[in-house]
Amino acid sequence: MSLFSFLKRTPPTFERAVKLNSLVHVVIDVQKEFCDPLYTTFRGTKHTDEIAQRINGVSKNLRALNIPTVIVYSTPFNGRSIKTSRGGLHHLEVSKDDLLAYKHTDSAFSSGPLKTILRDLRRKNILVSGFNAGFCVLDTVTDAIDNKYKPWLIHDCIGQDQGHQLAIPRHIQNMKDAGARTVHSKDVRRALAL
């Protein structure tokens, strides 16, 4: 096989495939109910707490490069406040420029304003982080692919609440099989020279 054939068949790396002005960061359900080990539902763990902190750090770095951040939050009611729904956000700091998108289904494309927000931003490469890998992240990512977006899973920023952490690699593989790509947060920082 020639080098050209190999490169043509090899999926491009994040660094080669993505331009800064084509990126948007979509953060899914980084809420106390899913991440905080001290919250009343006890779904959060030390692992989910660490991932939530990592997501906050990555979000700060991306905002510094003017990459839009869309914070998707789960609420049982349309438009309920991000401060009160599911206990509020956990470790995730909201910037004045962030866009907020509520949802009341697993996929953020099925309910709430995410689809409209992404259309208006005109950015096709979505950096995805958040919770829960086997439900909300999986359904949002597969719907993103169906809507002709290119999701990049920041795999060390994808979590699953208590009792389900061991399934994260399987869920990530399912999303890759559907067409998503993966990247480590360190590679995102390096590629974007952070």
Please give the CATH class. Alpha Beta
What is the radius of gyration? 16 Å
Count all strands and give the number.
6
Mean pLDDT: 88
Structural class: alpha/beta
Task: Spell out the CATH superfamily.
Answer: Isochorismatase-like
What is the CATH fold-level name? Rossmann fold
Biggest sheet record:
6 strands, parallel
Question: What is the strand content?
Answer: 15-25%
Alpha carbon gap, first and last residue: 36 Å
- Which spans of ≥5 residues are poorly predicted at pLDDT below 50? 1-10
Placed side by side, the strands forming the largest sheet appear as: 3-2-1-4-5-6
Please estimate the helix content: 25-40%
Name the CATH architecture.
3-Layer(aba) Sandwich
Basic shape = globular
Question: What series of H and E elements makes up the topology?
Answer: HHEHHEEHEHEHEH
How many alpha or pi helices?
A: 8
Count of individual domains:
1
Secondary structure layout plus pairing:
Layout: H1 3-9, H2 14-17, E1 23-28, H3 32-35, H4 46-64, E2 69-74, E3 99-103, H5 114-121, E4 125-131, H6 133-146, E5 150-159, H7 168-178, E6 181-183, H8 185-191
Parallel strand pairs: 1-2, 1-4, 2-3, 4-5, 5-6
Give a structural overview.
The chain contains eight helices and six strands, in the order ααβααββαβαβαβα. It has 194 residues and is of the alpha/beta class. The chain has a single domain, classed as Rossmann fold (3-Layer(aba) Sandwich), CATH 3.40.50.850. It has a six-stranded parallel β-sheet. α6 runs parallel beside α7.
